[in-house]
Every structure is written in C-alpha cells, then in structure tokens.
Specification:
The protein is an alpha/beta fold. Helices cover about 50% and strands about 10% of the residues. The two termini are about 35 Å apart. The structure holds arginine.
Length: about 600
C-alpha cells in the first residue's frame, strides 16, 4: 500500500507527463500553509523556466487533468503557480481503513533485501561506557530496529576497543601496583589463574590513573607502548591478563546494555583482527598499494580532484605497531569476506570523520571494498552539561552509565509522584513503570535532537510528563491503552472508520504519514524524524481525545469509528516507540 503522499504524487506526476513534462515535477509535499491546503505541488514553477511558459498556465493545465479526480475536495492555484491540494474526506477515510487492515500499518518492506552492517556503541574496554558512548548506542540501536523493520538483513557489531595502548597502560599500571603477580614473570608459565587478579571496580579505578601517569610522564607512556607491543606479539602472561580485562569489562557492559534493552549480533573487537592486520599490511606492501615512508608503512589516498590535503593513511608505525586505522581496514576486509554486505554504517562521534573518510578511501583504492559498497560514517554531536561543555560528573569525571541511569530513575520517580502517576499501583508495577519512564526519558531526549547538533543534558527537563519528552509520549500511549481496555469491558466494538470531521481530520492525516516518515528517516539516518512524528501523533491524539468523548458517545457507528482510530494510534505509537527502543507500560 502506497502512502497518501506517494499516491497523490503519482496522480500529479502522471498529469505532468501528459502535459509533456518529466514525471518528477509532480512531487507533492505536505503544505507549508495548512490554511490553504493539506498538501502542495510546486512543479509548475519548477518546470516553467525551462518550458518558457507562464507557471500559472501550466498549473491550470495540470488542474484541468486532475480536477475531476474524486481523491480531491479542493484544488487551487496560489501566487505565482503553487498548487494547493486538499483531499476528500471519503478518500482520507478509505485510506485510514486500509491502514487499519494492514498488519504493517501501510509501511512496505524494501523491494529487494539488502544486507547492512551497523557498527555502533563500540566502547573501549577497561573504561566504563559513559555518556559519550550513549549517543552511538541509542542512534545505532534505533537504526538496527528501523532497518530491520524495513526489511533489511541487519547485522549489528559492537566493535569494542580491546587491543590498543590503553591495554598496555593497564598492564603497566597493574605491574606497578602488584609487581609479584605471575603474569609479569619473564619466564612464561604453562597456565595462568582462572580467577581475575582484580575486580571490575578496581579495573575501572585503575584506568584514569594509568592514563594520567602516561600523559604526564613520557617514560611511563613508553613502557605502556612496549607492553602493548609485547601483548600484540603474544606474550602469554599479558594475553592471560588481557583476557581477564576483557571478560570483566564485557560482563559489566552486557549488564548496561541489558538495562537499556539493547543487543548486538556480534562483538568482534579490535583484537579479533590482529592476524588479519599482519597479512593485510604485508599484502598491501607487496602489491604496491602501501609504501614505506620514514620507516612507517603508509597508504597515499589523495585524489586529483581533492581541494584540500588528505593525509595518507598510516598502517604500520616505524616501531612495527598497528594503528586504529589498520584495524578498521582489516575489519572491512573481514566484513566483506564473511558477510558480503551492501552497506556498512559506522555510528561514531563526528570527531572521527577524517579517520573514516581516509579508511573508506583506502579500502576502495586497494580493492578491499568493491567500488559500489556503500560505507558511511554517521557522525553525531556531543552531549553537553549546563555549562555548554561535554557532560561530566560534579567531581569532573566522566559519568558512568549505570550512575546516570540511577540518577534519571530517581528523577523519574519524583516526577511520577508529583504528577500522581502510578501511585495507586503495587510497588513492583511502580518499579517496572519507573524503569520504562527512565529509559523513555533518556532515549527520547537523545534521539529527538538532530544527530549532528550538540545538546544539553538536562535530566529535569527530560523527565517531565508534559512537553516534548519520552514520559509525555508514554503517558499518551498509556491513555489509549486505558480507553481500549474500558471499551472492551463495555463491549464497544471497533468499526469502519467514518469520513473525518474537524476533530479527527488532522489526526487521520498524521496517521497516514507513517510510511514516509520511516522511509525518510532511513534515507538520511535521522531518527529525530521519527521522534517528531511520535510527538505530533501524541498532540493530535490528545486533541481528539479532548474533543471526542469516545466512551460516552451515543451514536454507535461514530463510537466504533473513533475506537478504531484509537487502535491505529496505539499501533503506530507501539511501532515508532519500539523503533526508538522505548517500551510502553500497560498502565500508569
Ligand atoms: N572504540 C572507538 C572509540 O571509542 C569507536 C570504534 C568505532 N568503530 C570503528 N569501527 N572504528 O572511539
């Protein structure tokens, strides 16, 4: 089933074609001036220039063709040649009835399934996942859900940082603290203890110290780099220690993801590509794609058309170590071989943009990736504190995710008390609702922003039950659930949707926008389109709810029609919120 916009675009495009113009001039958009019409078509203006004709005349010719179509209730020409379009109420009702009868609410799957790999979240082990990784996690998960729904074959991969210098820093820090541990013996043992020598809190506590020491003291940094190199060369004690670090971190991370209701198909961290980095860099050297420069192996990637300098990609340091870029190139090599994807999406902080454009170029230039493999860096802005600087704890450190969730949960609880929400329910149910409110507040506050903009982390605002917030959306959706429950108790049946009136027309038009919203969001990777839609839906539903008293309406056919509208609203809410990773409680 095509969306309303697609259907009327088709009608107008055919009319343009009949007049001898290109089909594409018939694009119809939502109106900027709802007082004049629900939709508008600006094609006559666009075509007039090249056709050397008066745009109003062209618009009139188009109207002469489409004018009798029962789809429309009103068509008019405005100003220099804009066409304003309003739909007939019968057409709107028919469309809503077909949405009602469609299990996918009018959203078609893509024609030919495509395989898309989504690389997201990807924190570095040893460091706890903090708010900086939150955006990648929320955005990436929303893409994973959206693309799945649209019929893509989605593979999600948490490309954790588990192999670089930070690991060397941790090894040397631990050695400084407990030099007698067996892992540091020069003479390698046959086996090492199964029990980790430290706890996850000790590990998390160690990293900031190690990092500080290495930034302040050059020799400490050198030592950390040496330890990293020994690890990468396979020193047994270090490998055993590294495995402990990975296990501890991954266990803690999985708990965080579990809280957020997020999962991955794969967890192939940087370490997974160690062997491939060796063979790949050798191959690139031998076939001339990479060259030695000052002892390092680099790959020049400048192209003639470049306006500015694009630095070569460094693959092997003069000391022999691999880099972040080496592992990303090897990762592409592996992904192509193992999955043969159509698309690879990287949901990573915008500050890594140059890195990705270099890696993509290198992958295509060397033939690691086919020229038509779609690889895209999906960047995003930062989360700031009230001072406009990247969000930190009061003490100035990075906020750990579970502390953050605890903070938001507490605020959600306060807000629920204030608004007298869920107060009469059992403690267990209250707890479950609070959790859902907390997740809705966090995810919606993040995803509603244009992903390239920075935003201010304001827990107070995120947790409100009014305004453009997750809790407000949940509240609206729960309200529908409650109406449907009461209607069910009173044996009120759902029925055909009747042609709209003033109180339902906008709501019905909003309901019909869903397929376009999802498709557009997937084209430009903007989940904020979905967030805007959800908010619009809530606003329009609440207006309808205030004007139409469903449960007490005396006219049966009208009552059943309204109930059906409620049901579609709920189904659309459930779908779009689930695409944002948000769950709706049954009651509040
Ligand atoms: N671990 C990196 C970081 O925290 C992000 C990795 C993103 N994915 C990738 N394939 N480079 O900055």
């Amino acid at each position: 089933m095509a969306s309303i916009q697609a259907q009327i675009t088709d009608i107008f495009s055919s009319a343009f074609q009949k007049c001898g113009f290109a089909y594409s001039f018939g694009i119809v958009k939502e109106s900027q001036r709802p007082d004049l019409g629900q939709f508008q078509c600006n094609g006559a203006l666009a075509v007039a220039k090249s056709a050397k004709k008066n745009p109003r005349d062209i618009a009139q010719n188009i109207l002469n063709i489409v004018g009798d179509d029962p789809t429309f209730s009103n068509l008019s020409i405005e100003g220099p040649g804009f066409i304003n379009i309003s739909l007939s109420d019968q057409y709107i009702a028919d469309h809503c009835n077909s949405i009602k009868n469609d299990s996918r609410l009018g959203c078609k799957k893509i024609d030919k399934s495509q395989k898309v790999i989504i690389d997201f979240s990807s924190p570095n082990i040893a460091k706890p996942m903090h708010v900086g990784h939150l955006r990648s996690t929320f955005l990436g998960d929303s893409f994973q859900r959206l693309f799945n729904f649209l019929g893509y074959n989605v593979i999600s991969d948490n490309h954790i940082g588990d192999w670089g210098t930070p690991i060397g820093m941790l090894i040397t820090e631990l050695k400084r603290r407990c030099p007698d541990l067996i892992y540091f013996d020069e003479k390698e043992a046959d086996s090492y203890p199964e029990k980790p020598p430290i706890t996850i809190s000790e590990l998390e506590e160690m990293y900031p110290h190690a990092n500080k020491r290495c930034t302040e003291d050059e020799s400490a940094m050198e030592e950390a780099i040496k330890a990293t190199e020994s690890l990468q060369r396979g020193r047994k004690g270090y490998i055993a220690l590294w495995q402990h670090f990975v296990n501890l971190s991954v266990t803690a991370l999985k708990m965080d993801y579990n809280e957020l209701n997020i999962s991955f198909d794969y967890w192939l961290g940087e370490s997974f590509y160690e062997d491939r980095m060796k063979t790949l860099t050798e191959k690139l050297k031998n076939n001339g794609n990479a060259i030695i420069s000052d002892g390092a192996l680099i790959m020049p990637i400048m192209e003639k058309s470049d306006q500015e300098e694009i630095p070569p990609l460094m693959l092997v340091k003069s000391g022999g170590g691999f880099l972040y870029s080496t592992s990303d190139l090897a990762t592409i090599d592996y992904r192509v071989e193992k999955f043969n994807p159509d698309k690879i999406l990287y949901v990573v902080d915008q500050r890594q943009h140059l890195h990705f454009s270099q890696v993509f170029r290198a992958a295509k230039k060397s033939g690691i990736a086919r020229s038509d493999l779609f690889m895209k860096h999906i960047g995003f802005g930062t989360i700031n504190g009230p001072d406009g600087k990247p969000f930190k704890t009061r003490a100035g450190g990075v906020m750990k995710l579970n502390d953050l969730i605890a903070l938001v949960t507490k605020k959600a609880e306060e807000r629920m008390k204030e608004a007298n929400i869920a107060q009469d329910l059992s403690k267990d149910e209250q707890k479950d609702i609070t959790k859902k409110v907390c997740i809705a507040a966090l995810k919606y506050a993040d995803l509603m922003n244009h992903r390239m903009s920075d935003y201010i982390f304001d827990i107070d605002k995120f947790c409100r039950f009014e305004g453009k917030t997750g809790p407000y959306l949940l509240y609206s959706a729960v309200r529908i659930k409650s109406i449907l429950r009461k209607a069910n108790e009173q044996n009120i049946p759902e029925g055909d949707i009747l042609p709209p009136t003033k109180s339902t027309r906008t709501l019905m038009l909003v309901l019909s926008q869903l397929p376009d919203v999802l498709y557009n969001a997937s084209e430009v990777f903007y989940p904020n389109y979905i967030c805007d839609f959800a908010f619009n839906l809530a606003q329009e539903f609440n207006r309808f709810y205030n004007e139409c008293h469903i449960l007490s309406e005396g006219k049966e056919s009208l009552q059943s029609s309204w109930l059906s509208l409620c049901k579609i609203c709920l189904r659309e809410f459930e779908l779009v919120l689930s695409l944002l990773g948000i769950e709706i409680p049954d009651r509040m």
